Amino acid sequence: MGNSSSMLTQYDIEEVQQHCSNAFSQQEIVSLYKRFCQLDRNGGGFVSAEEFLSVPEFAVNPLSQRVLRMVDGLNFKEFVAFLSAFSPRATLQQKIEFIFKVYDSDGNGKVTFNDMLDVLHDLTGQFISEKQRKQVLTQVLEEAGYTKDSLLVLSDFVKILGSSGLKMEVEVPVD
Amino acid sequence: MSSSEGKLKPSSSELDLDRPNIEDYLPSGASIHEPHGKLRLRDLLDISPILTEAAGAIVDDSFTRCFKSNPPEPWNWNVYLFPLWCSGVVFRYLILFPVRAIVLTIGWMIFLSCFIPVHFLLKGNDSLRKKWERVLVELICSFFVASWTGVVKYHGPRPSMRPKQVFVANHTSMIDFIILEQMTAFAVIMQKHPGWVGLLQSTILESVGCIWFNRSEAKDREIVTKKLREHSQGADNNPLLIFPEGTCVNNQYSVMFKKGAFELGCTVCPVAIKYNKIFVDAFWNSRKQSFTMHLLQLMTSWAVVCDVWYLEPQNLRPGETAIEFAERVRDIISVRAGLKKVPWDGYLKYSRPSPKHRERKQQSFAESVLRRLEEK
Predict the structure, then answer these.
(1) Tens of pLDDT, residue by residue, chain A (175 residues)
(2) Where in the cell (chain B) (predicted)?
(3) Which residues does chain B have within 8 Å of residue A63's beta carbon, measured at their own beta carbons?
């Protein structure tokens, strides 16, 4: 692709595979590497926010900024680890953990009312007023047995999302 | 409950994005599910479909695929084939290339020695001068094509010179223009380039009647549309050739056609161009190579083999919008040239998508939330 030696050795592949807990096959890791190099246009060894946003399909996603915060500047090994939650081999627990991390922007293990409100804002934009958002969120929280001041932790998320038949998978194209 | 706020606000971005629904083209998967039933906490917290779309775009997206170079498969890996390949390289660079360069130089000399006198001496007699200049431009283009050992097969009836018609074609490289021009002297609309290409544009191409635009100027579009309309109405102007994709694509996909060519009130004649990848990848990846390097690459390849199809002229159907017309013609060309269609605007190479797309998604989610809140 025109940049520096972009060849993965067998050792590199195995290292990456271990780091992502075998979420991807070796062929998939090679494909992901090609993709990583394709996105990393300036060859810096990581994909910057600009480079991610130059993919229009990503830029139009309502949660692009949140995802960007998690994926910006990662090297290839960490990039694959990030994507491992989307592998069909990932467990439901791993997927719920990922979702929890998206909500828990300050990383303290607790999701507050405001955290949830922020994500809801990203999802609905200007089409619901702030007041309505708060109303909706308070209502569904109370119906589920929480209050406005509840701090949700990972186990709460597992309880809430665990039975919903969560599907969160992407297919890595392997040629 | 009060109705959801506001309709989609007009976007402030320059990109014209009132396109057909992108969701028809994008991988559907999780976004198809129509949620029903009373709104629960888990429905608000479950952002998995949207995250899946984001991750899907990171892993593979249809836009980047359009601009990926696809060089012919390297075959020099075997100990017996390798020497053969090496001698091929030697032949191409040390024999073919100099011969081609000489042919091209001779062509330029003939061209300039005829063009310059014709241009200045026949200043008074416009129609005769134009006729000669047309012939000469077709000639120099033939020399260019010969310099890459271009093997072009034209299918379909040769374009005729009539007013109120424009030609549209898919775009892979600037050589598209040269290949078409050697058959018929078209007037073309082009982005003004720097360097020697720009010089050629302002002198020689001026004579066949070219229109310039500047991609980065938003207001430019109205001026350009006006010029296009004027040109296409003129009876003795050369037929206008437009590349509605607005940028070079890798000859395996086609991006959205800009509607400008389709709202001139003219007949649109589609032209499909397909390059044979076995010989050379003719895609000009302007992010990677300058045009000079691209030409040199072509001149050191074995040949440029392509098919050109002149397809049946199309008119705007009653009740059809310009955008629908553009899509219909894009369909005709893509089918003929074996291109996959993607729902993206080629100019997204240079700028970000309009917030309208994201807003549409947000609006549909917001409406679904409010609706389900009402349900018991």
Answers:
(1) 333 446 789 999 999 999 999 999 999 999 999 999 989 888 888 999 999 999 999 999 999 999 999 999 899 999 999 999 999 999 999 999 999 999 998 889 999 999 999 999 999 999 999 999 999 999 999 988 898 888 999 999 998 888 767 889 999 988 7
(2) Membrane
(3) 47, 50-51, 54
Q: What is the ipTM of this complex?
A: 0.92
Q: Under an 8 A CB cutoff, do A56 and B45 touch?
A: no
Q: What is the pLDDT of residues B202-218, one digit of tens each?
A: 777 777 888 877 766 65
CA–CA separation, B371 vs B98, rounded Å? 72
